[in-house]
Description:
Elements: H1 2-20, E1 35-40, H2 46-62, E2 65-70, H3 75-87, E3 92-95, H4 104-112, E4 117-120, E5 134-137, H5 140-154, E6 162-168, H6 174-187, E7 193-200, H7 205-218, E8 224-227, H8 230-242, E9 252-257, H9 260-267, E10 273-276, H10 282-293, E11 301-303, E12 308-309, H11 311-317
Helix pairs in contact: 2-10, 5-6, 7-8, 9-11
Amino acid sequence: MKRTLAAALGALIAATVVGCGSGPAPGGSADGKVTMGFSQVGAESGWRTANSKNIQEAAAAAGIDLKFSDANGKQENQISAIRSFIQQHVDVIAFSPVVRTGWDAVLLEAKNAGIPVILTDRAVDTQETDVYKTFVGADFVAEGRSAGDWVVKQYATAPAQVNIVQLEGTTGADPAIDRSKGFADAISANPKLKVIASQTGDFTRSGGKQVMEAFLKANPKIDVVFAQNDDMGLGAIEAIEAAGLKPGQDVKIVAVDATHDGMQALADGKFNFLVECNPLLGPQLMDLAKKVVAGETVPSRVVVPDKTFDQQQAIAALPDRKY
Length: 323
């Protein structure tokens, strides 16, 4: 009886030891599949919708288990989502920050939990070190500069002051800050180019329309609109037309994104120039995710190159436009 009991006890201990060591291997789940927690800004624009769809499709194609969360434009929702991902012990966290600041605490929590973080589309300002592995996205300063360069060339021989209004993105958001800087740097080459009004339209079509209506009431002569994304520019078109003016002629419009709707407006002559910001970041994100989970070294910044479009280029590109 004693021998039988001892044998049973030994078998139980052995089974327990095996059970404790049979969890997921480092850098992946038990089935070898990488699990990613992704927090998206929201669905404020056509660009963002295309970005979300591409990330979801790329995760499926790469065999990555994606836990997707929509923050609805609120930083507190993103912070809650990231903390939830940490509690779920995902392999990697990726997110597109609503605003640039206020991430130190939650990024440090992810670092202490041993979960690598990837920033997509937008960067952050942080006082902590090594709290994210890499950033993948566009150069927003360069985008703003490209928009400004077009205005400089367009009005190189302007005899009088050129009145410009700016439709800014979400206050505190990385693209809003950097596109403003790039645009201002570029137009400083010509003192006749003057931004007479600048206000956030929150990257939405309705916001762009509302702000543009206010601009037109306050300023009888507006020559150029710089819209920091297509949706605000499309809203501006509605306001300009409602005021009895012709967008693209009476008021010129340069915008950033080059989504399908924006490209159509350019082809129709209602926009005058577009700077691309490619939302199709999914495949690169998934590749980076697999590498950081595997412990491989990745570049600290992966910049996606952008194009620019005039009317004829938009007409040529539209049939094959994916977003």
